[in-house]
Amino acid sequence: MAWDTERTRRLLLEAAVHEFAERGPDGARVNAIAARAGINKERIYQYFGDKRGLFEAVLTDQLEQLAAASPLTADKAGDLAEYAGHVFDFHRTHPQFLRLMYWEGLQPQDGELPAESARASHYADKVAALAAAQQAGTLPRDVAPGYLLYAVAALAAWWFAAPQVVRMILGADTDDPDTLRAALVSLVRRLEVRN
User: Fold this and answer.
1) Helix axes 51-69, 5-27, angle to 10 degrees
2) How far is CA 132 from the centre of its chain?
3) Where are the transmembrane segments (predicted)?
């Protein structure tokens, strides 16, 4: 029987997402990831090199999933609220993503981050799409496009990043994610209004 390398790799990534989200890159254990995946731990070393390589692969994979779920291209940049809604939806269905980002942020920032240049290029493409929308007059120009992207990303993530704060501020309104999404889209629509 032929070994299904891609399936094995996918199972390890899926198991690692949960282990790293729960325990971080330092607290996660290779044995636990392998057991969760039902795969021999030696495959982790074969496919990813070491635990750090696996953490980097997990972050890269999750970021690619976010990019696929929430595209922001020049033709869509004028509808920033819809983009925010897609980012919100991703966070709702991938609650481990923000935890992974927090764990990454807690690591010493003394070197290049996993896939940093590719990630920076991806963000630069989104900023360029917003700049093009501003030039075309479909978005206001009073906020620089990089700041605009950052603000929308922060608004879309905060509901999930600090649910306890959201609950304390909004109370019962936080019980319905559709209400939260609608509020987010409404807020971002206000950012789209041209003066």
Assistant:
1) 110
2) 24
3) 147-170
> Where, residue-wise, is CATH 1.10.10.60 in the chain?
1-57
User: In the numeric block, which tokens belong to residue 82?
Assistant: 């819809």
Q: What is the CATH code for 1-57?
A: 1.10.10.60
CA neighbor of 150 nearest in space, from 184, 126, 118 = 126
Evaluate if residue 146 carries a pLDDT over 80.
yes
Angle at CA 157, nearest 5°, toward 129 and 107?
Answer: 100
3-state SS class at 79? coil
Mean pLDDT of the chain: 89
What pTM was estimated for this model as a whole? 0.87
Stretch (H or E) spanning 23? helix 5-27
Query: At residue 131, what is the residue type?
Result: A
The CA distance from 90 to 97, in Å, is: 9
Look up residue 189 and give its two tokens: 């629509």
In CATH, 70-192 is 2.60.40.10: no
